[in-house]
Amino acid sequence: MDKPIETLRVILGDQVSPEIAALEGLDPRHDVVLMAEVLDECTYVPHHLKKIVLVLAAMRHFARALAARGVRVRYVTLDDPDNTGSLRGEVGRAIAALQPRQVVTTEPGEYRVLQDMLGWADAVEIRPDTRFVCSIADFRRWAGGRNGLRMEFFYRDMRRRTGLLITPDNEPEGGRWNFDAENRKRLPESVAVPDAQGFVPDAATAEVIELVRRRFTNGFGELDGFRFAVTAKDARAGLDDFIARRLPGFGDWQDAMHSGQPVLFHAVISPALNIGLLDPTAVCRAVETAWRSGRVPLNAAEGFIRQIIGWREYVRGIYWLRMPEYGALNALGATRALPEFYWSGRTDMACIRHVVGQTRQDAYAHHIQRLMVTGNFALLAGLHPDAVDEWYLSVYADAYQWVEMPNTRGMALFADGGVLGSKPYAASGAYINRMSDYCRGCAYEVKDATGPRACPFNFLYWDFIARHAERFASNVRMSMPLRNWERMPAERRAAIRARAAGFLAEMEAGRGATCSTA
Fold first, then answer.
1. What tens digit of pLDDT does each residue of 101-120 get?
2. Strands 31-36 and 72-76, sheet pairing
3. Cα-based distances in Å from 66 to 32, 34, 35
4. Which residue, 442, 207, 273, 412, is CA-closest to 329?
5. CA distances from 155 to 250, 286, 448, 485 (A)
6. In this predicted model, what pLDDT tens digit does every residue of 170-229 receive, in sequence order?
7. Is the CB of residue 55 less than 8 Å from the CB of residue 275?
8. Residue 188, class by beta-carbon neighbours within 10 Å (0-12 exposed, 13-18 middle, 19+ buried)?
9. How does DSSP assign 299-338, residue by residue?
10. 78-91 CB burial, b ≥16 within 10 A, e <16
């Protein structure tokens, strides 16, 4: 592969799709595809070990699939002695060796990578990522001139654009755009939850697992038990399994949490979806077909499709519309460091302990665990958005900055001041108790806000309301908690704030994770 070539086509680790824009017009006789496993991308945050395995294994399988089609692939492994350790270094090395007439790639999912791409060569053609329903340019047009950017209105436009769950009269199926009110049931003890399908690593993936085990000895998370799909075939099998066995219950129980059920009725396709093993529109068509054939209820199909063409597309649009400024927003002035228990799970708060423990084991937690447990605590405790951003980007197998940052800074932390959502998603222990079994047997008392065993979510919730009362006074959606706070006797308010101050001081000193009477 030492003769000059026409086009060097660069494929990133989250772009393992045959239809990726960088491969359009590929001529196997004159073009070379470059794929490189580089240390910079493995370590810019302390990624979960399973995330590193997922990306590298998917890359290796994709490269083999391309080669089987007669495509010339220049593949650089992590342990290649000549590996420069960076994307820019490997592109530069390939250019020097191959002397291509042009370099073509696809726009990345992270702003920092885009800035790096611009310096890869004198001229790099960066093509739009056509795997999304709404392009970045289309989102900018949609957002232009609007006073507020609300996902619900964007979602309706995406429904109309795709025709998903739309009647011949161009109306929403079932007469409503959104069945969110039917997606919030607590899981009854009598409901049997199907196991999620996992995939036993083949020889190529096993090689990657051993490579990661050797190279990242101090990495976050558990490496054993890797079960993610790393090929398009397995990813589609996982989707089919979800539609057949768990999607019917997704509509009712997508917000539920249970200590013995890490997956419940969720799809767990986001790791495969976000690296390109599944096409989002095809996924939604498959779900719509299941509803039209009577296999799943409408609230399940609509709730799932909303997550894909509504929320997923919307947060990507917000990210690229507002970067790089979005990455520095801290509207609530949060300053506290991330507590150690976010990494270790060592805390008497049963909900945090369970979600962090599951995250360490699986590199996965569903959206309510992320938003209403770890995200909610970070909001109430005033943890700095930079630290929370890094944590979410590090610990989940599906995390890329375009999807992680708006969910963290916007949805969980309200650090964007209302760009993404109209109110902060703050909740006391009552919400967690209503939607899970975490509070049973917890060292803290979920109905107490001031005593020695008071649930930290309770006193931190009211302290959060008090701290930001002036800011939230003009927010109609925050009027009820503000009124409830103001109606409390002065002695109770003082006791709650004192309890919160003591807990936060202990937490900052590294001692705030243990109930004093446990």
1. 999 999 999 999 999 999 99
2. parallel
3. 11, 11, 11
4. 412
5. 19, 18, 39, 35
6. 999 999 999 877 777 888 888 889 988 899 999 999 999 999 999 999 999 999 999 999
7. yes
8. exposed
9. HHHHHHHIIIIIIIHHHHHHHHHHTTGGGG--TT---BPP
10. beeeebbbebbbbb
Query: Bridge-partner residues for 31, per DSSP?
Result: 7
The predicted-structure confidence for 456-512, as pLDDT tens digits, reads as follows: 999 999 999 999 999 999 999 999 999 999 999 999 999 999 999 999 999 998 875
Output the CA torsion 53→201→273→50 (10° steps): -30
> Does a cis peptide bond (omega within 30 degrees of 0) precede residue 324?
yes
Spatial CB neighbours of 356, under 8 Å, sequence gap ≥ 6? 341, 342, 343, 344, 345, 347, 374
Cα atoms in the 13 Å half-sphere on the side-chain side of 199:
24
Q: Which residues are registered as beta bridge partners of 106?
A: 127
Strands 102-106 and 7-10: parallel
CB 132 within 8 A of CB 316: yes
DSSP string of 241-307, one letter each residue: HHHHHTHHHHHHHTT---TT-SSTT----HHHHHHTSS-HHHHHHHHHHHHHTTSS-HHHHHHHHII
| Predicted confidence (pLDDT) per residue in 306-342, tens digit | 999 999 999 999 999 999 999 999 999 999 999 999 9
Residue 518, CA atoms < 13 Å, CB-side half-sphere: 16
What does the CA dihedral 365, 370, 373, 377 come to, rounded to 10 degrees? 140
Handedness of CA 138, 321, 425, 465 (dihedral sign): negative
DSSP 150-206: -HHHHHHHHHHHHTTTB-TTS-BGGG-S--GGGS-PPPPTTPPPPPPP-----HHHH
As beta bridge partners, residue 97 has none
